[in-house]
Amino acid sequence: MEFPVTLHILGKEVLLHPVTESLGIFIGMRYYTFAKRKDKEKFSSVNSLLILIAATLGALLGSHIIGSLERPYDLMKAENVWMYIWLNNTIVGGLAGGLIGVELMKKIIGKKESTGDKMVYPLITAMFIGRIGCFCTGIYEETYGLPTRSMFGMDLGDHISRHPVALYEMFFLLIVFIALKYFQKNYTYRSGALFQLFMLSYFSFRFILDFIKPKFNIILNLSTIQIVCLLVIIYYIYLLKKNNHEIIRSR
């Protein structure tokens, strides 16, 4: 397998990564639309649209802001700061920014109930498909791991055995998908618990995973992404402990 993987479309060579990202977003949105059709909750379509807009805008801003802060010195030295910010992004920032956008909008429109449970499986699906493209890009984007001598090491395009972190993440997302389906089937829980478990699981995984990825340490051997992960982990541990009495195993 040669990296980066490309496709021939209409006589042009195109990287697979943007194709899988677009496909992931499309399938994820269709999955979410299907889930919403089965939703019995009567909620204003205008408010739903406002929350979706807030989530999208928050995710866009969070993704690029956190992505560009991964290497602060490069950001400060950039000739075109805005272009540097636009070219750098991360799913961690996207999820965190989307969360902030939704929570702010819910306060504005006065909605207290959670809106995230229906987004869990579409998000996992979109992220899984997107990571296929990340893996197929090899070392040509910053989604590869450190050199390793372990049995999992792969040559991602530079003739060095590296951790295929995109594959690790795909496997993790598959396990989380199955585990949350089991939780959903066997437990009764307050609205929002499913989304909280997903976010806590994913950010915990990313916090650990980034120790085997090239990174710029900001403080205490932690990168910007890992600091964001810690903040989100603390937030969701608080929420789950607060509502723990409302999670009951079904008979």
From TrEMBL:
UniProt keyword list: Cell membrane, Membrane, Transferase, Transmembrane, Transmembrane helix
Signal peptide residue numbers: none
Segments traversing the membrane: 15-34, 46-69, 81-100, 120-140, 160-180, 192-212, 218-239
UniProt xrefs under Pfam families: LGT
GO MF entries: transferase activity
InterPro entries in the cross-refs: Lgt
Keyword Cell membrane attributed: yes
UniProt family annotation: Belongs to the Lgt family.
Name this protein carries in UniProt: Prolipoprotein diacylglyceryl transferase
Lineage: Bacteria, Pseudomonadati, Bacteroidota, Flavobacteriia, Flavobacteriales
